[in-house]
Amino acid sequence: MGIKRIYIAATSQHIGKTTSTLGIVHALKQRGLNVGYCKPVGQEFVELGDLRVDKDALLFSRVMDFELEAENHSPVILGRGATTAYLKNPENYNYSESIVQAAANLEAKYEIVVYEGTGHPGVGSVVDLSNADVANLVDSGVVLVVEGGVGNTIDRINLSLSLFREKKVTIIGIIINKVLPEKLEKVRELVKIYLDKHNLSLLGVIPYDKSLAYPLLYTVRRVVDGEVLRNGHKLNNKIENIIDSSLVDVEEFTNYDHLLLVISSRRLTQALSKIRDFHKENNLEKSPLTGIIITNHRFFDAECDEYITENEIPVIYSNLDTYGAVIKISKIEVKINRKTPWKIQRAVELINEYVDIDKMIS
């Protein structure tokens, strides 16, 4: 097999592009293939000494265990002010050459190189590096990830593919992601009718998995502009559900683990008393609480502090009221990252189960 290039694009943000890319890379490696990775155009970056690399490139270097080389794995970073500078003086930038050189370096070392796109297909157009431009530059076929449904899904596929068609980029196929499990077969049947009519390949239909949407407490702290009062070393705790002061009827708990309590400090003692009793009566190994957000006041009584300390429950104070905090938390868009290993594992499982990898590389 000659060099195979796969460019993973998405119809918009928060569709599951990075999650899908992780699963695809892992599935290819499971087939014994030597797989390389590149994020040609990055927007959100981290600084590693003198280097700036896209945060997804950093994630993949940890997961795939390769030494991160900014010039090869993250050749273009569009930081603050980059677009203005480019529009005024495009001759000062060699973005395209950087990407082509990175592709050549990687393709000299690997059997397959997976390129991860950025945002929706048009992102990067301001510097002449839309996803279609980049896929064309690296001479790669495209796998398009789209969110599940029927009418809206087909509309987004058609709109998104127009840019790639303009650049005469090959479309390897479509992955439909985040489909409600009860609608999986209906979506597969109806969208496939459209794709077949347009000679497009359906590579897989992936059900929505709630666990991939679980945020971490450190993300919540940032969103509510919170002050850590206790157990800051536990901010990597995941959150599976939110309970507020109106629910502290523990009989209504739908699960017993990874619950975030959002409550006024004035009601905390009463709420924790009920939760403590529930904890004891059900012989739970640990508290059902993964964290507490308190509002109204920073302080709470010694009885609360004892339970919080004993169970290492992180406590965060927010200036928001309880309702405002819950609304902000519920709107968090969760991205997979190296602090969420359970999401990485689940991404791999979903791709292996629901996507035809062999069809993708045939």
Write the topology of this structure.
Layout: E1 4-10, H1 17-30, E2 35-38, E3 41-42, E4 45-48, E5 51-54, H2 55-64, H3 70-73, E6 76-77, H4 82-88, H5 95-107, E7 112-116, H6 131-137, E8 141-147, H7 151-166, E9 171-179, H8 184-197, E10 202-207, H9 217-223, E11 227-230, E12 241-244, E13 259-264, H10 265-281, E14 289-295, H11 302-310, E15 315-317, H12 322-330, H13 341-354, H14 357-361
Parallel strand pairs: 1-7, 1-8, 2-7, 3-6, 8-9, 9-10, 12-13, 13-14, 14-15
Antiparallel strand pairs: 4-5, 11-15
Helix pairs in contact: 1-2, 1-13, 6-7
Question: How do the strands line up in the largest sheet?
Answer: 2-7-1-8-9-10
CATH class of the largest domain: Alpha Beta
Structural class: alpha/beta
Radius of gyration: 23 Å
Number of strands: 15
CATH superfamily name of the largest domain? P-loop containing nucleotide triphosphate hydrolases
Percent strand: 15-25%
Indicate the CATH topology of the largest domain: Rossmann fold
Q: Report the end-to-end length measured between terminal Cα atoms.
A: 10 Å
Report the sheet with the most strands, covering strand number, pairing sense and barrel closure: 6 strands, parallel
- H/E topology pattern: EHEEEEHHEHHEHEHEHEHEEEHEHEHHH
The total count of helices amounts to 14
Q: Give the rounded overall mean pLDDT.
A: 90
